[in-house]
Model the fold of this input.
Amino acid sequence: MTYIYSFLFVGFICLIAQILFDNFNLTNGHITSIFVVVGAILGFFNLYDKFAYYVGSGASVPIMSFGNLLYKAAYYGYHTNGFLGIFSNMLTTTSAGITAAIIFSFICIIFSKPKN
Amino acid sequence: MKDNKYQQLVKKHTPKEDKLKHALIAFLVGGSLGLIANILVTIFNSFGISSKDSAIIVLLIYIFLACLFTSLGFFDNLVAICLCGLIIPITGFAHSICSSMLDYKKDGLVTGIGSNSFKLAGSVILYGILSAFILVIIKVILYG
Done:
């Protein structure tokens, strides 16, 4: 059942994004920024975890999980280390995505030829 | 030919942007990415890897494939077909870093790749961190 839910959940997010993209004359950067902020707001109301309970690991695929993870890590940091913890803990859970994106793209770029 | 008639001809022959078709393609592509992620996590689970680790491995696979296809030069064509189905998943984030690196590779390692790598992806990180910080402050003030 989680398979069907994950298909519907990620597909529905992409559907909303596409409708916004077509009707409001936005660029890719606008869309991804909007969805990260929406993900953080969903994390604020504790909704994203409820979705993730049904959706399973498919919930970590859309960029919304990025905002959700940032919010959750910062809040966890506040509880463990006070106000300083927000700063020191913010990027802990999302570091896998950022680091992988940097490392893999650098490796791929080094061995590729630039476009004309 | 009169201007009026010409305009009508142009209007007739310009391809219509089919919004319903775009939305449907984005739904199917994004949904199948989520579905594949779930299936891969189940497969990794059967090898004894915890679900948290296998979710990270799936993200790494997606990011690696996006970077590879971008540097090979045909990810842009895929995005033109699949639209938001590939932009909203984590592949879009990797693609934005990789494509800006690729565009500025000719300017050298530091001034080209180094200073331009977050040209597009920077907005995601900036607004993500900013909104998370503000929301945590709000939560702390309201609920303690």
Observations:
- Residues 19-46 of chain B form the longest helix (28 residues).
